[in-house]
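Ticket #4471: structure export looks truncated?
Reporter: QA, pipeline team
Priority: medium

Steps to reproduce: submit the single chain below to the structure queue and open the exported record.
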Amino acid sequence: MKLKIINRILCISLIFIFTFTTFYSYSKVYGKTYYVNNAAFNDNLIFSASSSPDLCLYARYAAVIDGGNNRLLFGKNEDTKVPMASTTKIMTCIIALENAPENLCCTTSSLASSMPEVKLFAKEGEKFSLIDMLYSLMLKSHNDTAVIIAENVAKYILTEKNKINTSDYSSSDFVKYFVELMNNKAKDLGCTSTYFITPNGLDAKDDNGIHSTTAYDLCKIMSYCINNDRFLRITQTIEYSFNSDKSSYTVTNANTFINMYPNIISGKTGFTCDAGYCYVCAYKDDDRTFICAVLASGWPNNKTYKWKDTKKLLDYARNNYKKTLVLSKDENPDPYIYSYGYEEKYVQPRLNLNENIYYELCENDKVNILYTIYPVLSEIYPGDVIGQVNIFINDYLYESVQLLSDTYIGTPGYIYYIKYCLSRIFS
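Actual output as written to the record:
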């Protein structure tokens, strides 16, 4: 009887020690973190965040972002949903470029020909190539052209790509489908405060709200668009001539800011009674890109306010922000020790990073880099993810990078724990 009791006590003790040592060895791994502040790359100074300055803008809503990562550098009511007029057409253009061939034959419907000015005055039944329509859309901002594009691109996607019979579709059905693609793209880009109703940006309202975006969302959309070379080629053209099956046309670029400020690579104007004067543009020099948007930047007769506001925004970004290395792809994080009872194993984490990470930073930005190693729950092989690096700017998480193992780490077996438990009992 005494022998049985001793055996039970020994078994219970082994189980308890096994459980305790397992948890203990893992718990030493969970909290292995450290911070690196911006003293590592910014002249040994640590700054605290400050609010945006007052630039005395005419625009009620404005934003300028770092085009490399969409970080907001300045904002004025940048998250307020408001109408954006024909700046809408940058999304119309990119949806068409990404979903249909440039030589797509586009036929003018009665719905398209009924659009209000500004318009190309295309006649019902008149045929154009898609690429010509895109120049008409982006250079002169024709409202009928936007509908021609929306209808014909939607029909092409539904019939040629999706193999759907569209014989019972109306012009409005095609436009509705195209606008749905615009809204889906906005969501994909993280523009959660954007809602499109029309492809041309005319003021509109339905059960879900008004045709609207925010200054920040509009910047993010433009940031995406300028990655498309054809989009840039179209929006940088000063004058373009083309023919339909009935007439000849010439359009000139209404984006005069492209000649007013250096290094403007794209832009789109807009105006409606509800939106006021609007503008979104992209600036790019040798190593940095800024996107800025102004909405409700005056009403008639203040057409030049949008140019003055945009100049102030770009001047502010260029003069106050510097492209700064935040995390090098060659960074070697400190080695970590994985403990198993009295046994330790070393691993050298490496960054899963092919290019250096840069951010536009000003003297008021505070940067923290947090390294975290995960607990070992199973065997680890070279190349397995063992942690992550989080980049915080002004206490906001902007980017995460995986940490990979450079070696094999096996989990201890039962024999190891039995030996370890016995050594603890009889030591």
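Status: closed, not a bug. The export was complete when the record was re-opened. Leaving a note from the reviewer for reference: Residues 28-45+327-426 form one domain.
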